[in-house]
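[Discussion] Sanity-checking designs against the backbone

I'm trying to build intuition for which residues belong where. Below is a structure token string of 171 positions. I'd appreciate it if someone posts a full sequence so I can compare it with mine line by line.
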């Protein structure tokens, strides 16, 4: 499945928050509480496994929400929330050569490059995409998904064009 990407046209420094929330409706208060503790609000929030179906809305003040629900499935779905002042384009197509590209998603990719102990087929594919398109991995190898045993797994990734990598922070 093609993952949504956000290509930013603004070049100043910005912050990105990525979270595999495993159902946003019951976790929305937790997200809003976390955001209230931050000195600076993230410019981009990428939420994986939102488990939303139309017509349920996901609104956070000062953000524009882009969603891709997983039709016919109970789980899945992503939301990208972008601060209202940013100019962006959401692409639901294969990756093309672009500058000022930020790509976020729940790729279920395991690779030592991302902090996993193993490498799976999706991880190998992502490594190839990263190398072929000269992308930088913003993740710091911290897990983004909590397994049922409590272990963290770094399967959600944030990638960007190398020219943006020093201007981005990730958590």
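Best answer:
Here's mine. Compare freely.
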């Amino acid at each position: 499945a093609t993952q949504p990407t956000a290509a930013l046209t603004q070049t100043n420094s910005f912050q990105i928050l990525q979270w595999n929330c495993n159902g946003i409706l019951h976790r929305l208060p937790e997200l809003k509480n976390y955001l209230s503790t931050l000195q600076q609000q993230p410019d981009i929030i990428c939420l994986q496994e939102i488990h939303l179906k139309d017509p349920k809305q996901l609104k956070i003040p000062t953000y524009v929400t882009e969603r891709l629900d997983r039709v016919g499935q109970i789980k899945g779905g992503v939301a990208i929330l972008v601060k209202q002042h940013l100019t962006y384009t959401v692409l639901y197509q294969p990756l093309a050569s672009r500058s000022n590209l930020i790509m976020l998603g729940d790729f279920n990719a395991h690779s030592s490059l991302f902090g996993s102990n193993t490498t799976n087929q999706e991880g190998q594919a992502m490594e190839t995409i990263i190398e072929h398109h000269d992308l930088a991995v913003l993740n710091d190898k911290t897990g983004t998904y909590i397994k049922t045993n409590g272990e963290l797994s770094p399967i959600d990734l944030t990638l960007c064009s190398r020219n943006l990598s020093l201007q981005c922070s990730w958590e």
